[in-house]
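note to self: the first set is below, dont mix up w the second
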Amino acid sequence: MKYELPNIFLHFLNRDTQEIFGLIDDNKTAISNIQLSLNAAILLCKDYCIIPVGFYFESENAKKTVLNNIDYVREGLLVFAMREYEIQEYIEKKQGQLKAFMDDVNYYRFFSSDNNELTSITHATISRKTKIGEYCLLHWVNNIELLAEDMSGDIAEIYSVDTKTIGKDTVVIAKTILSTSNKIEEGGAFIWRLMENQLEKFPERDRNFDRILRQYFEKNYYKAYLEEYNASILYDIFPLENGKDFYLKKEFISASNYRWFYEYLKCLELDSVLGFNATQISAIKRWPEFERIINIYLEICNMDSFDNSIASIRRETSRLFLVSTSEMKELVAIIKNKILQIGGSAPLVSFLTQSTILEPQRDVDVKIGIVTALEEELAAMCVLLKNLKELPKLSSKHSAGNRYFIGEIESFHGGTHRVLLVLLPKMGNNLASAITEKMQVLFPSLESIIVCGIAGGIPSVVRRGDVVISTKGIIQYDFGQNTSRRFIPQNDGSACSSYLVESVRYFQANVLIGGNKWINYIQTINDSTEASFCRPNNYYETCEIKVDKKYIIKKRKATTLPVAYCEKVGSANAVQKDAKKRDQLHEEHKVYAVEMEGSGVSDATHIEGNGYLVVRGICDYCDKTKADDWHNYAAAAAAAYTRALIESMPVLFKKENQ
């Protein structure tokens, strides 16, 4: 596999794509994100970027973007694809299709010849041979037929990945869609609009099916252009979601990736370029020094050590930049000087850049980060770190997420792990994701994040004081779809770090040989603090369990020593105190513990290409008996296990120090 930088098809200017990802018209954030994406595409493309002329008419965002960047058109860096010879011919054709097959008067407004700005794009067109409607219909109907006949084909595969099952209702919908295929065929590129009319006949349908059908249709719509022009889309410009790049990555391999490119420029302190205007970027693209910077980016993407992650981009760019005789240093210095000459301005801010305003702490070499959400969780972990110190506050602003502790854990294999520790401003997956993302940006050497703290447990499989480790993954059970029958969670989260999971397995093997010595660290915590982290002295405990179809509070004998379980963890933004919901989570998803931060950390580490693991001490049973008396002991148990796990892991030395 070899990465290249072909011409780029601007799929994000499509009104349908903007609707899918919530980039609605007249939205300043949407315009800002679209502008940044366009600038990146212009800098990365081989010769030019391609936009179907229909995008210009259908989307106010696209029209504003084109007119605000008319220099790209004048310089031949932005071209319009269409089959017709004249713009007016195109408009008349589209109006005819709309009137005949959609009867949507509201949609007519997009296709109007009363537009004086059209003169600015008429000279920048390239011919298109492919009949997009026919191309899409061929792939569409074939796969709908496979879905309806025996639940096979691309749509079935994508749908079953997202929902775990294909219901009979979905097959009925597919057959209904096929029954109108003649009208669909005549509808040309407006097939999806016709599909929506058919789907509305099933008000109780699985709405996730709508999303997948739409993304699959868009995939084939884009694929037709990519094949004809040997192009690529700009990948990874939308928030994390399955199918966000329309399932194209496997078929159209390209280094045209916004997040990779942004991280590369950021490492070179050139990321502000993405906020420049069209005139400035048109000039920068043609500088020999910047052309070489682009070639080096492509070389990094094709290195054997590159693993398609942001972490790899950071690592290899930093390595090249820090070499004393670095060609890159000289190139960057020249480019910065030229930027001053053309009046370079400050960068735009969007959801892609707002978390990176603080300066990365490149001199802090730390591989493992630990995230805690409660004071007792932080305190327990602090006790078990040697040479603990708080780093200087990283921002003068009175904002959260800028205070970090750093400590050490000696490895049994020799050497010392340096560990970064943070306390979240409050509980919840959303904040956990934001702080973890910020933490990774500030400390680019981080490779693994461990969530350490307390959780509720499933009383049929665990006891208070036990520890659950998320080696089988995490599920965000409050994110999904509501059907007429029940709520179906959609987010299984990214897989836990294979390195950390392997480390847990080796550690558990040592536990089988030498016993639960990690438990001794719980006593270490209790001896080192004024607050009590002792196990509550209860001979009996209570929990809410199901007896004869009713839930009752029952007393049972308590255990004395904690046990570690390597299982799946459930995560949500709400405290769980419903015994029935708790048992349902265990029955349907096999979770052993329920908490509120792991899924957010999972998403944040996935975006940055790092690994994560969740370690949770059980403090309650997610029912009416929930109380705080086990908080400290459960926090201590999780911290003890985390400390023992890290010290069992070999230190990954730099090559020159091996």
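second set (the one i keep forgetting abt)
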Amino acid sequence: MGFVAEYLNETQAIVERLDVEAIEAVATALAAVRLGGGRLFILGVGGSAGHASHAVNDFRKLCGFEAYAPTDNVSELTARINDEGWSVSYTHLRAHETPEHLVCRLLLEKKTHKTALNTRV
């Protein structure tokens, strides 16, 4: 089997394993936040910070969200890390975890290379 055929077979297998109900639940939560005038905060560390920044741009441009990635404001993030420590650098966002505002965490498990989207509404 050639590379392209193998790639497409693997892609199809991955798509077939997607949890449709979970995707619908995330889409419904996102729609409720947008319709309610809430804000979307997307958090990421390392490479996931880049993904968070890119996602914020797409949510703003394509979906009309008021969206933010704290890592895009390097001055504030590093000031929090300097003053309060890395372990609490994102904790100020807990105040925004309400039905009106959605905080999403992008996680990459290095050992298994699985990407997860963790949201709390």
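remember for set 2: The chain is about 50% helix and 20% strand.
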